[in-house]
Design goal:
By secondary structure, this protein is mainly alpha-helical. It has 2 domains: 116 residues, Four Helix Bundle (Hemerythrin (Met), subunit A); 116 residues, Helix Hairpins, CATH 1.10.287. The protein has 14 helices and no strands. α10 packs across α12, α12 crosses α14 and α13 packs across α14. The radius of gyration is 30 Å and the shape is elongated.
Length: 317
């Protein structure tokens, strides 16, 4: 069993093996895209071979693990295992077409294995995961002001109901709608429409057209708001949302990126210390692995165990 574990670990750390898995992932991802145009028996056979290779690879990673807990504490292992298991679900068991389509959509997520192709991509994923908390509070902050501005917009710019208008104003209203932006005849007709209008403005989607539409409504006397208020409202929202709020999001991601890079650098320093300790004869590789394995069985995370090991090695020196 130990020999099998060592063999699996040796293969998994080989550059050529890693490159071969990347090639298989790329082939499988390309075939998934081609299948949208149609499939052939040969394509199904190639996909099945790719699935077998993925199964063998995940099995090798399981055998080369430090512990079962350590294997399942790695998010990438769980991610790959779920994708492989989904691929083994037979399509014939689904009588309902909607369930069958859901299975096919889930299988498309095998393309996400491309995220494992590069360590740099893994760093980006780790940064995004660590940024979830900060992004949630940024999104909440954004929603509060979106809600506030939308309510203000409805009170200021909502067009009157057609039935309540006089005959003269009905003519003006009809003329305004003829020149209106087709997808937004009343951009602040209600709260939900106002919120969507403000979100469109953040994306830069013809927000000036919305402003001109409201200016025409003001000139026609359909809303009692001056052109200065209309212009000022939209400029303030665009500057506040597009620049300040989005910069908060960018700042949160950049801050977490620096933290992740600092953690990676610290990990490399620890590994260098351990390698140096082995080369200096302070501890053998077997002794270090035994210490890490013992720490794992006690529920200590590998990163924490390496920190403790580094401190111990520095004391011995």
């Amino acid at each position: 069993m130990n020999k099998l574990k060592e063999l699996c670990h040796l293969l998994l750390t080989q550059k050529w093996f890693e490159f071969a898995i990347i090639v298989v992932i790329l082939v499988n991802s390309v075939l998934i895209g081609i299948e949208t145009y149609g499939t052939t028996p040969m394509m199904r056979d190639i996909n099945f071979i790719c699935l077998l290779i993925f199964t063998i690879e995940i099995g090798m990673r399981f055998f080369a693990r430090e512990s079962v807990r350590g294997f399942f504490s790695n998010g990438w292992n769980i991610f790959d295992l779920v994708l492989v298991l989904i691929s083994y679900v037979p399509e014939s068991i689904f009588a309902d077409s909607s369930e069958f389509m859901a299975l096919r959509v889930l299988r498309v997520f095998r393309v996400l294995r491309l995220l494992r192709v590069s360590n740099e991509i893994k760093v980006i994923i780790e940064v995004l995961v660590q940024s979830v908390s900060a992004l949630f509070y940024n999104a909440l902050f954004f929603f509060i002001f979106l809600y506030l501005f939308a309510i203000t917009g409805v009170y200021l710019f909502q067009l009157p109901a057609y039935e309540q208008l006089s005959d003269e104003n009905k003519g003006r209203y009809e003329h305004l709608q003829e020149d209106a932006y087709e997808s937004a005849p009343d951009p602040y007709g209600d709260l939900s429409e106002g919120m969507f209008t403000l979100f469109r403005i953040v994306t830069g989607d013809d927000w000036a057209v919305i402003r001109y539409h409201l200016l025409s409504a003001s000139e026609a006397g359909l809303i009692s708001v001056s052109p200065a208020v209309i212009t000022g409202y939209h400029i303030v929202w665009f500057v506040f949302a597009a620049f300040l709020l989005l910069n908060l999001v960018v700042g949160a991601i950049v801050n977490n990126y620096e933290m992740v890079m600092e953690k990676i650098q610290k990990k490399r320093e620890i590994e260098d210390t351990i390698i140096e300790a082995i080369s200096d004869g302070v501890l053998t590789n077997e002794e270090i692995q035994a210490i890490l394995a013992a720490a794992s069985t006690e529920g200590i995370k590998p990163a924490e165990a390496k920190l403790m090991l580094k401190a111990e090695l520095e004391e011995k020196k």
